[in-house]
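Proteins fold. Shown next:

***
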Amino acid sequence: MRVMLLSADRTIGASLNEWLVERGHLLSRALRVADVAGAMDRGETDLVVVDLGSERVVDATIVNRLRSADASIPLLVLASGADSDDVVSLLEKGADRCLTQRFSMAELAANLRVWCRRLLGSPTRYVQRGSLRYDTESRTAWCGGAPLKLARSETLLLEALLRTHDRYTRKDRLMDFMNVHGYDVTSNGLEAHIHRLRDKLGRSELTIRASRGVGYRLEGA
């Protein structure tokens, strides 16, 4: 998952980055609303965390500006100085969730896990597709109860394909997804990663279907 943080608080950024990196996710930071809005408009993030600090006067127009950039990317707002009226205003402006008072890192992490699961279309930490079971927190997979040994690149591809459910994912989007996570993938390189993942999924009912000019999708369960 790609998370963008809008905050001037280095402490929150460091804690959030540590939690995300340990779980294989990515964090980028921004100080300007315009930079975050631009990233949202370009589809460069999966979730935005907006830190409004502990000020008693909460500026909900920031949320409104970000929501105008994209209507679907989740906005998680941290506003420790907000009261109930502020929370109502933030939600009405487009926030998906607000953490107030003295929230803990554990509470923030729990909310991030919720969004990870929602990106994969699962109400719990586990995604089930036929005999394939995927743990969104440990990022491990099983097939018929047996561990499925996947390289990190293969795990990333599996996640990307699980996100889109039965829809095709364009080749360039998969390449961008891999590049963002540290892989300098060419068109031929992506096909090699897909081939290896397809072979490992052979123990399940799933296969990766390729459609020229359209992309790839998981099929079979």
